[in-house]
Design goal:
The complex is a heterodimer of chains A (302) and B (253). Chain A is α/β, with parallel strands linked by helices and 302 residues long. Chain A is built from ten helices and eight strands. Chain B is 81% helix and 0% strand. The chains are: A alpha/beta (302), B mainly alpha (253).
């Protein structure tokens, strides 16, 4: 008798838990910027979580049981794509075995398919390092890309959850207006950065560079993903003698020692830029991210 | 704390992988401990990893059989060379093993300078990705381990050194790609160390400690959203220490 009661209680509890979860759309993202964006569009109708944080290198992450569990109940999976997560996303999808987010399904969104990729290599060769044959995948660093992808997310959410489609479209309109206004302000603020020569740690800032118009005159990692050799560092220093850079840029997950080394040798400031939401205290949402990036660049350029 | 990762379909394959690794590594580990060549698994695993990197340098895809053949071949050559060293310079065997380990690791990094995709592979070889395994992968390893165990319990006697090195190389090459070097080392050494003075049922106690370590480590990893490999290593160590203390306590009273 007591056992039946206990079982009944368990069933009631499980139902309560599952209906409260079902009521919301589960969005699982590979990177925090898409989680933030899905939150802007989905609002109270979605539960959002990201597999990685701004302090992790998205190329490699450690397997945790929670990741499989979260993808298993996801209704929408949003990743950058273009090979950025190729080291772990396919295995994660296979282990989660969730048909809603299988590649090609309505619940699978690869952001890179909806923007123009830069740095598409003419020749793909293993000797070129950690290269992405589809083009540079760090697309979140141009705010105009964010706008295109927000529209795609809105469509997908409306398809998956038609009852709330009106709300998603409404939220998209509000977001788009705020975002366009913010872009205008950022572009005004960032005018002094146009043409400014900088050195980058890894070639992950091309979209920001393309948007703001600063110039990359050197890369610390000659081949992406491979630590620099001493010859390369010497060449870089010689190059900087001829054409001095104003700063050296790295993101939160990159080793501080390489950019500090260059900073001391070349006498230029080393700047840490948040590469996504959560990469710095001020970058707590997408608006804060760009505001903080531009502020840090302007401060270092003084 | 979250309960959603505590799901048998998520943790099941990883736990079975752990049991498989333990099945061969516990008896092998007791032999390794008895011979005092603790770091041999690191050396052999690193040589196997070097083989994998070399295969990548030739442009072969990972996971294909040519890569496996090269990894096994490299491990075998390494194992037989170490066997030869043991016969000729038994007094410095451990020093040689340590040197082989760092030389193989450094050679890997040098090769990797032109091939960063192998770099991911090398990192996976160290830390392992036990949660990504599925039953299909496990069936191949289960078959290999059945053969290894058959030879171990039927044919291995003290003095048959060559057979020991052969079985060791086969087991470690497979387990390293399944769960990573850290877990291989922990599975090999910790249970064996725990039952060092445990008398007759030692083998079974060691299996028990190992299995409990994997079960607890995987549960901790699910509950606290931690990487699974390191969580299991820590739990194996904690259980080993607890077992040691409790046994001492019992024998004193």
């Amino acid at each position: 008798m007591e056992r039946t009661g206990l079982h009944l209680l368990m069933v009631v509890l499980l139902c309560a838990v599952s209906t409260s979860v079902r009521a919301k759309i589960d969005v699982f993202t590979c990177e925090p910027e898409w989680a933030a964006l899905a939150g802007e569009i989905g609002g109270e109708h979605v539960n959002v979580s990201s597999a990685t944080t701004a302090l992790q290198d998205v190329h490699h992450i450690q397997a945790r049981p929670g990741l499989i569990a979260r993808l298993r109940k996801a209704d929408l999976l949003i990743c950058t794509g273009a090979g950025l997560e190729e080291g772990w996303l396919p295995v994660l999808q296979r282990r989660a075995n969730n048909p809603r987010v299988r590649t090609g399904a309505a619940g699978y969104l690869e952001a890179a398919q909806y923007v123009d990729l830069l740095d598409r290599p003419a020749r793909v060769d293993r000797s070129e390092g950690d290269i992405h044959p589809q083009g540079n995948p760090h697309i979140q660093l141009d705010p105009r890309n964010i706008l295109s992808i927000a529209a795609v997310i809105t469509k997908r959410l409306a398809t998956i959850d038609p009852t709330n489609a009106q709300d998603y479209r409404g939220a998209m309109e509000v977001f788009a207006n705020r975002w366009k206004e913010a872009i205008r302000q950022w572009e005004v603020a960032a005018r002094p950065l146009k043409g400014m020569p900088v050195v980058v740690h890894h070639n992950s800032w091309v979209y920001l560079q393309n948007w703001l118009g600063f110039e990359v005159v050197g890369i610390l990692e000659p081949k992406p993903g491979i630590p620099p050799s001493s010859t390369h560092l010497q060449q870089l220093l010689n190059q900087l003698d001829e054409r001095p850079a104003r700063m050296v840029i790295r993101s939160a997950y990159q080793n501080v020692r390489a950019s500090d080394w260059l900073s001391q040798r070349a006498g230029i400031p080393a700047v840490l830029l948040p590469s996504t939401v959560g990469g710095s205290e001020a970058a707590s949402d997408l608006f804060g991210l760009y505001k903080d990036i531009i502020q840090r660049l302007l401060e270092a350029a003084q | 704390m979250n309960l959603e990762g505590l799901d048998i379909s998520i943790l099941g394959p990883a736990f079975v992988a752990g049991l498989l690794v333990l099945s061969t590594h516990v008896p092998l580990g007791r032999q390794v401990l008895a011979r005092g060549i603790i770091f041999i698994d690191l050396a052999i695993a690193q040589i196997a990893g070097l083989g994998v990197i070399a295969a990548h340098t030739f442009g072969w895809e990972s996971g294909g059989w040519p890569v496996q053949v090269i990894a096994f071949a490299a491990a075998l050559v390494g194992a037989f060379s170490l066997h030869w060293c043991e016969q000729h310079w038994p007094e410095v065997q451990e020093a040689i093993i340590g040197t082989v380990f760092i030389v193989a690791a450094s050679a890997g990094i040098l090769m990797l300078a032109g091939n960063p995709h192998a770099g991911d592979h090398l990192k996976d070889l160290m830390i392992g990705q036990i949660l990504w395994v599925d039953y299909q992968q496990l069936s191949l390893v289960a078959f290999l381990y059945a053969v290894v165990l058959l030879f171990w319990f039927m044919a291995f006697k003290a003095g048959r050194e060559l057979l020991f090195y052969l079985l060791f190389a086969l087991s470690v090459t497979a387990s390293v790609q399944l769960v990573g070097v850290y877990l291989v080392f922990a599975s090999l050494i910790i249970p064996a160390l725990t039952v060092r003075k445990a008398g007759k049922p030692a083998l079974w106690i060691a299996y028990g400690v190992g299995a409990a370590g994997y079960a607890l480590g995987l549960s901790m990893s699910a509950l606290f959203d931690l990487p699974a490999g390191p969580a299991i290593v820590l739990m194996l160590a904690v259980l080993g220490i607890l077992f040691h203390i409790s046994r001492k306590h019992v024998s004193l009273t």
